[in-house]
Amino acid sequence: MEVEARGGASALAGGRQGAEDVRPFVETVLAALAEGARKRNGPVPAGGPQAVAAAVAAAAPEVLPARGTGGQEALYTLVHVMAAGAADPADPACAAHLHGPPLAVAAAADLAASVLNPSLDSWDQAPAASELEARVGAELARLVFPDLPMPDALVTTGGTESNQLALLLARERAAGGPRVQVVCGANAHHSVLRAAWLLGLPQPVVLDTPAGVLDPAAVDRALSGLPGRALVVATAGTTDTGQVDPLPDIARAAAGHGAELHVDAAYGGPLLFSRRAAPALDGLQSAVSVTVDLHKLGWQPVAAGLLAVPDRAALRPLDHRADYLNAADDTEAGLPDLLGRSLRTTRRPDVLKIAVTLRALGRDGMAALVDAVCELARQLADRIEDHPDLVLYAPPVISTVLFRPAVATDEEVAALRRRLLVEGRAVLGRARAGGRLWLKATLLNPHTRADHLDALLTLTTEGTTRA
Ligand SMILES: Cc1ncc(COP(=O)(O)O)c(C=O)c1O
């Protein structure tokens, strides 16, 4: 079979001609996205897993046909079925998880990342991308550690990778001595426990968090009983409730025992953009490392994670040599050595969409988005408090609101969440707090309006089904 160089499914995206070959495909993608969203007509397709599986199988019965269907057909069919079957975080009723609606400008930038396809494991694959990543990483690290001369941040695939790297760096700082003991709250993200397991560290000491946040006195007591080195992991923006551990007091407790502090601010980190919201993160500067995600509160397409450290020297344990990527003579001759910027080898330029977003919106624009979702959460909480049939768990700290029908068992709360999901009416999360099961609304869409909030609450108090 002939390999077509131009116009068809074998045409390349890059080079001088590439843009012209991509353009009609982009038009098709946009049409399929619009039509798929119209067909879905809601936050998630109705019918649950069986209906979605049937729609996908019907649209594309053959994954690898003997003869291809061509670029236009393949794109339209598969993008359409994926959009029609998406859980769309841009819909105000899709508010279950820390699963944010990406900005249009960031999604467009991601197209350029795919076309150019730099790989950030060596300078000869990513000359400008690596420079951009260095500049953006340093600037975002300054947001976390504004008073330090040389902070730095690695770009990661998200909070899980950042937490893993944080524990790895702690392990390496302690090399030669007793193994690092992680101390965290029951409110910590599960990736912290997995990272300790993966890295061969002792089972973490997990402290009860009945109030939803780590108690500094409990941290102090736990550290008193530990003989060796400890890494306290605090959370700024917990997954279930969006609460922020009391960072200054935890930092003091840790310092009192010579322990280090890592802060998982995967969710809360972007509060730093907003002068109004940033004080919630006071104490962050005491950390030896900080996880921040921009695909949660930063309106980026997945993946857009960061691990910030107070000084770039802290990243040295990640240095690594592979002659084909960073030969010593190349490095001596001035080619930047990128291999120590990640444990991955081939690596997408996720920094491009971040850089475009930061430049397009500026700090004030980012702050306005952060403030908007925090304000929406306050509005939703007020409505729940005023509602005779609903109970609020607690005033929101960031943009997560837990609530439940006033008269319902935990099983009924769980069933309500599943019913709304399967009927395609709302995607709400679930969280256990204070010994009960709650519905969770994680508000990340800054364009949600008051009437959307009302509609969401109506859904949780009515038994209607979508036509
Ligand atoms: C507090 C916290 N840390 C880490 C993570 C993991 O982030 P990711 O899913 O980007 O790996 C999450 C995910 O929700 C989280 O809530």
Write the layout of secondary structure elements.
Layout: H1 15-40, H2 48-59, H3 71-84, E1 94-95, H4 104-116, H5 127-144, E2 152-156, H6 159-173, E3 181-185, H7 190-198, E4 205-207, H8 216-224, E5 230-235, H9 247-256, E6 260-265, E7 289-293, E8 305-309, H10 323-326, H11 328-332, H12 351-386, E9 390-392, E10 400-405, H13 410-422, E11 427-433, E12 436-442, H14 450-461
Pyridoxal-5'-phosphate binds near residues 235, 237, 264 and 305.
Brief descriptors of the model:
Aspartate Aminotransferase, domain 2, binds pyridoxal-5'-phosphate, alpha/beta, 467 residues, 5-stranded mixed beta sheet, Aspartate Aminotransferase, domain 1, 3 domains, 7-stranded mixed beta sheet
Describe the structure in your own words:
- Keywords: Aminotransferase, Decarboxylase, Lyase, Pyridoxal phosphate, Transferase.
- Pfam families: Pyridoxal_deC.
- Its cofactor is pyridoxal 5'-phosphate.
- This protein has 467 residues and is an alpha/beta fold.
- It folds into three domains: 85 residues, no CATH class; 242 residues, Aspartate Aminotransferase, domain 2, CATH 3.40.640; 102 residues, Aspartate Aminotransferase, domain 1.
- It has 14 helices and twelve strands.
- It has a seven-stranded mixed sheet with strand order 2-8-7-6-5-3-4, with helices on both faces. It has a five-stranded mixed sheet with strand order 1-11-12-10-9.
- A hairpin with a 2-residue loop joins strand 11 and strand 12.
- Helix 1 runs parallel beside helix 3, helix 5 runs parallel beside helix 12 and helix 8 packs parallel to helix 9.
- The protein binds pyridoxal-5'-phosphate.
